[in-house]
Amino acid sequence: MLILSAVTVVLLVINVKSTPEKSKSSSFYIVPLGTSGGLDESNLSSYLLTTVNESTPNSAYISLDSGTLRHGLEMAIKQNCFSSQSLTAEQFLQEKVKAYFISHGHLDHINGFILNSPNDKSGKTIFALNETIQIIQDDFFNNQAWADFGPHGLKLYNYQILDPLSTNSIPIPNTDLNVRIFRLCHTCPFLSSAFLISRRDESSASILYLGDTGPDDIEKIVQIDNSTYYPRYLEQLWQTMGPLVVANQLKAIFIEVSYSNERPDHLLFGHLTPKWLLKELDVLRSYHSMENVTIAVTHIKPEEGSREKIMKQLKEESNSNYNFVFPRQGEPIWV
Ligand SMILES: [Zn+2]
Ligand SMILES: [Zn+2]
After folding, report:
1. pLDDT at 3 over 60
2. I need a labelling partner for 287 at 20 to 30 A (CA). Which of 128, 224, 225, 281 fits?
3. Which Gene Ontology BP annotations are present (predicted)?
4. How far is the CA of 109 from the centre of ligand 1 (A)?
5. What are the domain boundaries of the chain?
6. Which of the ligands is closest to the CA of residue 106?
7. Torsion of CA 3, 7, 8, 9, to 10 degrees
8. Is 86 exposed, middle or buried (CB count within 10 Å of its CB: 0-12, 13-18, 19+)?
9. Please, are residues 74 and 80 in contact by the beta-carbon 8 Å criterion?
């Protein structure tokens, strides 16, 4: 009886733990600055990432989407996420954030970056698909919506277009990381993207961060002759990720679930539900068990009770095949 209740207590503790904590084998440290998929401008998709060596996070961070920066940094500093305690949010942004990775041009992924650009330090690079760089250049840094801080204007930032057809990873300046980009469909033919961020050391430990995406079975292009074409970008992505899972290099996948399963397929608008996420992840699991890969669920739309509903649906329908975490602003994740 005593043993049984001890087991129950341990199980309860495991269930309650919301985010992975520091361990000797941690490769990355991620600080969520914003986690929701819209409406609340103080909590929009934005994740800072750095490498971990001997249980200590490096001080050079990259920004994976930048929906909320300043408020997220203020929260993270208040919650002692960083060792450099004395820096303000603005100083941290200027000195410690070395580059920006924008998955697509929607406001909820770019807002914080644009608004904070006037006080940012010069010389940083914005990495994205050509299509996303065009949006930043033409729709934001156009001297109408905002001043042009890009390389053709005030020259504060450089643009680095990443080629989704290239199989090479390229080094991220002032960090010990490399990046490779992949296309995603976010209401075809509108493109979003995923970044594979890898350590440049021999471990090649990696994290896959996905911007908004719809399911392969829904995302289609209607062609001029009225025939339909399914690009199936997620399937291609999982094919590339398979060997990394087998080699135990892939530490985490940050992927969206915007709505609960009650959302009908014709109203997904390029997003996933628990049902669709599990269908996609099962493709990846066909290569290898996913027990060593943390799945961080992002971009939950802030509707009443939807976070709890999505957590419940994922846990109930995944048969414990996946290790889900649900990031919260200012709560670090070690993987
Ligand atoms: Zn979004
Ligand atoms: Zn979007």
Report:
1. no
2. 128
3. cAMP catabolic process; negative regulation of glucose mediated signaling pathway
4. 6
5. 25-334
6. 2
7. 100
8. exposed
9. no
Instruction: Report how far ligand 1's centroid is from the alpha carbon of 136 (Å).
Output: 15
User: How far is the centre of ligand 2, averaged over its atoms, from the C-alpha of 66 (Å)?
Assistant: 12
**pLDDT one-digit tens code per residue, 277-298:** 999 999 999 999 999 999 999 9
Name the pLDDT band for 12 (thresholds 50, 70, 90). very low
Ligand 1 centre and the CA of 107: distance in Å?
8
Distance (angstroms) between ligand 2 centre and the Cα of 39 equals 13
Q: Give the number of whichever ligand sits closest to the CA of residue 258.
A: 1
Ligand 2 mean position to 295 CA, how many Å?
Answer: 20
Distances (CA, A) of 244 to 106, 240, 287: 30, 8, 10
In the predicted model, is pLDDT for residue 329 greater than 90?
Answer: yes
CA of 44 to the centre of ligand 2 (A): 11
CATH topology for 25-334 is Metallo-beta-lactamase; Chain A (3.60.15)
Residue 47 Cα to ligand 2 midpoint, Å, equals 16
pLDDT digits (tens, 9 = 90+) for 216-237: 999 999 889 999 999 999 999 9
* 254 CA → ligand 1 middle, Å: 13
Instruction: State in Å: Cα 271 to ligand 1 middle.
Output: 9
Could you tell me the distance, in angstroms and rounded to a whole number, from the CA of residue 189 to the centre of ligand 1? 16
pTM surpassing 0.90? yes
Give the amino acid at 153.
G
Considering only CA atoms, which of 320, 229, 325, 264 is closest in space to residue 35? 325
* Cβ(72)–Cβ(330) below 8 Å: yes
End-to-end Cα distance, the chain = 35
